[in-house]
Amino acid sequence: MAAMTRELDLLQGTLDVLVLRALSWGPMHGYAVARFIRQGSTGTFKVLDGALYTSLHRMEERDWVESEWGISETKKRAKFYRLTAAGRRALRAETDSWNDYVAAVGRVMTAAPELAREST
To answer: In sequence order, what DSSP letters do the residues of 77-113 get, joined into one string?
Structure first.
């Protein structure tokens, strides 16, 4: 159960950027976005519907995505989301921030013990 909690905590902090990345490939309905994230993470992330649609609606309010109704590959009516120009800018900025974050965590995780003694 603890691993599941860590998974959710990580996902809550990064869901918007993962959704933006999925949509960078073209318009998708919600299920396809969730599938992209699950498959792209080799099953590590399973996006809950409530979290996904909250994220998509938040990004619509920010004008990062637009939506329109269409027909899915299974011939069902579905809402398709696509990135706007503002969404593409947000994806670039979020990707840069994420890469900086990952690099900083990596530096701390590989830091030598001498660094801890230098500050005392």
So the answer is: EEEEEEE-HHHHHHHHHHHHHHHHHHHHHHHHHT--T
Tell me the sheet residues that pair with 28: 81
Q: What is the pTM of this model?
A: 0.80
65, 84 contact by CB (below 8 A): yes
**Domain boundary assignment for the chain:** 2-118
The gap from C-alpha 29 to its chain's centroid, in whole angstroms, comes to 15
6-21 pLDDT, tens digit each: 454 454 568 999 999 9
**In the CATH hierarchy, which fold is given to the domain comprising 2-118?**
Arc Repressor Mutant, subunit A (1.10.10)
Radius of gyration of the chain from its Cα atoms, rounded to whole angstroms: 18
Q: Which DSSP state fits 74? A: T
State how far the Cα of 74 lies from the Cα of 42, in Å rounded to an integer: 24
